[in-house]
Amino acid sequence: MSEFPFPKHHLNKTNEDESEDKSDTDVETLIEDIIPKNKPSHAMYIPGENSLNAEDSSTLINGQEPITGSSRDFFNKLKHNSPRKAQNASIQQLHYNQNKISLDRCIHQTVELIMNVQSENKQRPIFYPTEIDNDQNILLNSAKAHLALIRQNSTIKNLTKEQLVKNLQTDLPEFKILKINFKMNNHEDGGNNLSNLDKKSIASLLEKKLQQQIKYLLNLKDRIDDTSSKVFVTGDLNAGKSTFCNALLRRKILPEDQQPCTSVFCEVIDASKGNNNIEEVHAVSIGNEYNIKDESTYEVFPLNELENLVYDCDKYQLLKVYLLDDRSFHESLLRNGVIDIKLIDAPGLNMDSYQTTQVFSRQEEIDLVVFVVSAENHFTLSAKEFIATAANEKRYVFIVVNKFDNIKNKIKCQERILDQIKKLSPDTYKNAKEFIHFVSSDSLVNNGDPGDPGDPDNEPNNNNNNNHQNNPDFDELEASLRKFILDKRSISKLLPAKNYLLNILQDLKTLSNLNEKIYNDTKTQKLKELNTHIGPKYNDVLSKSAKIGDTINLLIENTCIEVYNNTSIEINNTVNNLGDSPIVKYGGVQYLFEYAKETQFAMIDSILNSVIESENKAKEITTNKVSEIIKYGQNNLDDEFLNDKVFNSSLMFTRRKDDIGKQINQTIDISDFFDPSLESCLSFIGLPESIISKTINYYNPINILSEIPNSAVSLKDQIPTQLTLHTIYSSGKILTIGALGHKIYQFSHYVTPSLLKKIAIPITLTLTGFTIYYLISDIPNALPRKQARKIKSQIEKLDYSHQNSTRISSECRSVLNYPARQVMNNFQTSIDRQFNEKKEIENVIKDAEISSKFFGELKKKIKVQNDNLVQIDLERINYVD
Predict the structure, then answer these.
(1) pLDDT in tens, 793-846
(2) In the CATH hierarchy, which fold is given to the domain comprising 16-103+228-450+469-487?
(3) What DSSP string describes 8-53?
């Protein structure tokens, strides 16, 4: 059996302008077109040709009389036109196959686009405008609106649509397929759920939505590849769905009741093709996947058990109802001789939340929706939502207004229903004659049950039930349904897929436009912020940090040098001044040893005191410099810098262990008590200190040697210019050895040996006594001088002055390094913070560039894909009048 063997039917095609005019006509005019004025239309199937007569097909819309005459005349006419019809059928089939392949390719490419969007969404969450259902306020998942409020950790305020448009300088995008609604409650315990909606959470919801679309598109591909057609009958509770299905079958198969009875999906299938001509029910349990070849996947029941099975929704998810319809091909929709049709009776909307969700989810598997609405109740909210959702894919939805005979004011009822359909499915409204039908299904079904007294023969109702009542309204509905499914297969089977792809591509384009604009704006804004604020601030803190660091380091170095020099001078001066005068009271010769020890201890203490004095000066200097460093920090960082810290200089140098007393040799020798010298002798005689210092300096060998000319040139410079050769000669004679010897000889005449003998002993005794007295009297001065020289010599060997100067200056450096480190650490913290801000904004700019480029490229791919879809002309041969 070929998939699409019908010949081309030249119907009166309504162009686009006419369709628009038609949509604007009065409802009364549409109603007049809908209400049939002629006899019911019929479609005549011709066995052997697998096609419908072209002239007869035209009567499906125009309502003309069906072809009459003998079958032989009709077949002769058909045979005369068969070559042309076969050619048209082949062309039509070729176009159908090409369009199906093109749609398959477009579905695969669209899935790739969605997967690319998913990948981008995982790396950089996509901005998505979200709509809150409770008060229809808008909250944009963007850096300018939503994220800014989230980061401020403040109460999020809803933005109205006008405010949002003003902020973004663009219209709020609207989605058909990728729309995500957030239903928020207003209770005090949960009304502030908006605070939990951040960019990542919304992106996560978008990810789920995209994943659903991939699954939907793959099911859509399977659907257009399937040679059969699924007719999905749904509607509100107690709208008469099962009754309508029975009317199409001309048999009371599905249970009917004034109360909702169908709670399990019932799929009616031609048993002659699917189940070896056996009428029965295959009940598929929840969780199983139906496979007719595997009996473990279902349970078999007779047809008379169907009325009990439809209530058992807790056990079964699907009932496969296999029927035999012995009516002729042109009468039976199920057994039409062309394609396999599966009629699905769905549970009513609002039956329960689970069943309603299942009804919505089955749209991806069906080709045609027949929505049954009660003329008494019109469209409920669930019905409106279902039709609006179906309109995203299916441009045309069959609307069956059942129980129309019960309405008294039929015109008013039609007006209200058509007005509702106009908003829900505009294309269905434009083609109201084709897709909107007001019927009463009860009159179409033979109510005679097996053994019913109403049956003339009082026999069970068989499958050859052809004696249905004449109902032009229902006949026109059935003819339109047959024509749309069989004769306009490209529109009924392929057009929904094309329409859905166009809608989802439009949504992707809208999403791309929004994100490209936001990322471009973000890039511009962040570049401006980086160049005018973050970058200069970062460079300024770097420069300031380097400058302050150099200043503080220089301050520390100068302070340490100052402390070192002060300590060195203080200790050296103390050591150099040792022995200049007695520092311990002399108690007499009998306390000579005690005096020596006390003098020695006093000298060591004076040295230690000089070290302590140096430390005190270092503390004072360090205190001032610490304050100066803190001031640097307060001026450049924060007025509160180290305000909680107090510098305690008394804690400095507390770990010093000066063991100089152990390092110096403290033994006392007899020679330590005597230190004769010319200076001390003259002082002992009683000469004034000034004369003694002049005499010592004058006769100092060093001074004498320093005054001797060290070269002939300097000697020449010292000789007076007026000195003559005669003067030099005369002086030379005076200074000759002979002259000197002559003078000594003359003086010797006065010193005789006898004189020497007389004065030698007294002079010797006098000198000896004077010397002894001088040495004993000079002990208080000689001992300090001698001890000072010994201590000084040892201190020089120990390098005592340098060691203490280094120690004191090092501790000052350690103390000063603490506030210096605090200043530099705070600067480094500020630098790190500024660097992180700079790095973060650079990453935002980089991501904005990548995302902007991605969405720019995505728009190009979407355009190519959209152009390819537009070129798939499904209505060139098949169209809706």
Answers:
(1) 888 888 888 989 999 999 999 999 998 998 888 889 889 999 999 999 999 999
(2) Rossmann fold (3.40.50)
(3) P-------HHHHHHHHTS-HHHHHHHHS--SPPP---EETTTTEE-
